[in-house]
Design brief:
Layout: H1 6-10, H2 18-32, H3 41-57, H4 60-69, H5 90-102, E1 121-127, H6 129-133, E2 139-147, E3 163-164, E4 173-178, E5 181-186, E6 195-196, E7 209-217, E8 229-232, E9 248-254, E10 261-263, E11 266-274, H7 275-280, E12 282-288, E13 291-297, E14 306-309, H8 323-328, E15 333-340, H9 347-360, H10 366-379
Parallel strand pairs: 1-9, 11-15
Antiparallel strand pairs: 2-7, 3-6, 4-5, 8-9, 10-11, 12-13, 14-15
Helix pairs in contact: 2-3
C-alpha cells in the first residue's frame, strides 16, 4: 500500500519553513484529534498520518533524508512504516504543541485510559553482500505478545466491555481540596484508568494480549549498510488492555564475505597468480558478486598491483532511484594482484631459474633498481 507524500499530508510546499510546518500541523491535528472525533477510526488514522509527517519534516536531518530518498530513505514501505532512525514520540510532540488545549503534559486533567503502549522489539537480521547488491524481502519469525482475539485486546469477556469507574466517574483521578489547595491523585478504584473490567476474558485473563509468534516480511533496500536500523511501526508487542502496539526495530548485520571486503560501494579482493604469468602477462578470471569475469594482467605485473573493474561493486542506498539508474551508480571492484613464488622446485626448474639469473643478473629488475636508488639517496 503506497504512502502519501508528507508535504501533501500537511498541505505545504517543499520549501515550507519551520513556522509554516508547525502552523499547518496544528490546524489539521486539531481538526482530526481523536478527542474531537470519538469512535472515528478515519480521523484517528489521519491524525497518526499527520503526526508522522510532522515528526519527520520538523527534524532537519530526517527531512533532508526524506527530500533525497522519500519514504524509502527512512526505511521503505510495506509491512509497517520502516525507517533508518526513530521518528520520535508523537504523543510527546503533540503535548508540546497542544498540551494547553487538550490537557496533556503537566497541565493535564484528562484521564489516562486503561491502555498502555506495547514494548518495542529488536531483531538482528543477517544479510550477505548479494542482498546488498539487490533489494531483498526476507520473512522473519518473532515471538511477541499479540492482541487477544476473543476480546479484541480489551481484556473484557466477549460480549462485554470495560465500564466507567464509579468512584472517579471515569476521570481516572480524584480531587482533594483542603483550604486553598487542590490536589489530584490517581483513582484507587481503577488505578487511574478511568475504567474497570467486571467480567474478564478467560483467554487472556483480562490482560488483552497473549504470547505468540508472527511472521513478518521485511523490505531490505539495495545498498543497505551494516548497522542500519529498519523501523516497522506497530509490529512490536501488543499494547496492554487495548493500548497501541510498540514498534519493531530490525538491525541489519552484513556478514563477512570470504573473498570481498567492502568499502562503501566499492569491493576489494586479492587474487593470486603464478610469478610466470605476472612476468609474461596473461588473461585471468577474477570473481564478482555476479560470477567470474576475465581481465588482462599486464606483462611485468608486480605483487600488490591493483586492477580496477568499473561498475562491478555495490549500489548506493538510494531507494527512490530507478533500478536502471541505480545500476549505473554502482561502485567498483579493486583486484589486488598477489604474485605467488613457488616453494618446491624440481631440479630442472631450479636449473632454469639459475640460468635465468645468470643471463639477466639478479639485480637488474626495474623495481629493485628503483629501490636501491632510493636507499642510496636516503643514506647519502
Amino acid at each position: 500500500m503506497s504512502r502519501r507524500d508528507y508535504y501533501e499530508v500537511l498541505g505545504v510546499d517543499r520549501h515550507a519553513d519551520e513556522a509554516q510546518l508547525k502552523s499547518a500541523y496544528r490546524k489539521l491535528a486539531l481538526q482530526h484529534h481523536p478527542d474531537r472525533n470519538p469512535d472515528d477510526p478515519v480521523a484517528e488514522e489521519k491524525f497518526k498520518e499527520l503526526s508522522e509527517a510532522y515528526a519527520v519534516l520538523s527534524d532537519a536531518e530526517k527531512r533532508s533524508r526524506y527530500d533525497r530518498f522519500g519514504h524509502a530513505g527512512l526505511g521503505g514501505h510495506g509491512a509497517g512504516a520502516q525507517d533508518f532512525g526513530d521518528l520520535g514520540g508523537f504523543s510527546d510532540l503533540f503535548n508540546d504543541l497542544f498540551g494547553d488545549i487538550f490537557g496533556g503534559g503537566a497541565r493535564g486533567g484528562r484521564r489516562r485510559g486503561r491502555g498502555q503502549r506495547g514494548a518495542d522489539l529488536r531483531y538482528n537480521l543477517e544479510v550477505d553482500l548479494f542482498d546488498v547488491l539487490h533489494a531483498s524481502e526476507p520473512t522473519i519469525k518473532i515471538p511477541k505478545m499479540r492482541p487477544c482475539e476473543p476480546c479484541s485486546g480489551s481484556g473484557a469477556a466477549p460480549g462485554s466491555r470495560p465500564e466507567s469507574c464509579e468512584r472517579c466517574g471515569g476521570a481516572g483521578q480524584i480531587v482533594f481540596q483542603q483550604g486553598f489547595f487542590r490536589v489530584n491523585r490517581p483513582c484507587d478504584g481503577c488505578g487511574g484508568a478511568g475504567e474497570v473490567i467486571r467480567d474478564h476474558c478467560t483467554s487472556c485473563r483480562g490482560a488483552g494480549r497473549i504470547e505468540g509468534q508472527q511472521k513478518i516480511q521485511v523490505i531490505v533496500p539495495a545498498g543497505v549498510e551494516h548497522g542500519s536500523r529498519l523501523r516497522l511501526v506497530g509490529e512490536g508487542e501488543a499494547g496492554i488492555a487495548g493500548g497501541p502496539p510498540g514498534d519493531l526495530y530490525v538491525v541489519i548485520h552484513v556478514t563477512e564475505h570470504p573473498l570481498f571486503e567492502r568499502d562503501g560501494t566499492d569491493l576489494q579482493c586479492e587474487v593470486p597468480i603464478p610469478f610466470v604469468r605476472a612476468a609474461l602477462g596473461a588473461k585471468i578470471e577474477v570473481p564478482t558478486l555476479e560470477g567470474k569475469v576475465e581481465i588482462t594482467v599486464p606483462e611485468g605485473t608486480q605483487s600488490g598491483k591493483v586492477l580496477r573493474l568499473r561498475g562491478k561493486g555495490l549500489p548506493p542506498l538510494a531507494p527512490r532511484v530507478a533500478p536502471e539508474q541505480l545500476e549505473r551508480m554502482r561502485g567498483d571492484i579493486y583486484v589486488r594482484i598477489f604474485v605467488e613464488v613457488p616453494t618446491r622446485l624440481t631440479e630442472r626448474q631450479r636449473q632454469l631459474l639459475e640460468d635465468f639469473a645468470e643471463e639477466t643478473g639478479t639485480d637488474v629488475s626495474p623495481v629493485h633498481e628503483g629501490f636501491m636508488d632510493k636507499l642510496r639517496n636516503f643514506f647519502d
